[in-house]
Specification:
Layout: H1 19-29, E1 36-38, E2 52-57, H2 61-67, E3 74-76, E4 80-85, E5 100-102, E6 106-108, E7 115-118, H3 129-140
Antiparallel strand pairs: 1-6, 2-4, 2-5, 3-4, 3-7
Length: 152
Amino acid sequence: MGVRGTGAAGHGTAPVLALDSLVRLGRARRTSGASSRTLALPEDMTVPLGCDAVTVPALYGPLLLSRLPSVGCVYADRADWWWIVPSDSDVALAWPVPARYSRGALVPDASDGLGLVHRPRGSVPYTPPIPLYLALCQVTGTIPAWSRPLSA
């Protein structure tokens, strides 16, 4: 599905933009006012799908860890835990509050005592996003978005 238009004189066609292109353009325009840095993954890890992170308050970290069948790299400080997920794991998915989605796996520079608390056996750092989402919904008492009733 694309967007078509006519040129200034009514001739020609404007470029067609796919939905994924529009999403990426919208994301590129957003900026964060806080100073931040990218999480440093272990050197032997590969990120074939890009790298984002889901941040949750530290209170939920151990609860999520015990509920997931597969866990990638997880970082923590006193206040938060960061779960590495593939890029664009937020497309069409509203992560429940109090989770925050971080494009590019950015963490605030002020993160105190940040360290790796879980490392997967393989060379890919990802926690599968759907099981993480469902576990987070479970521990926060949130109904998954696709299970909520639609309103007109």
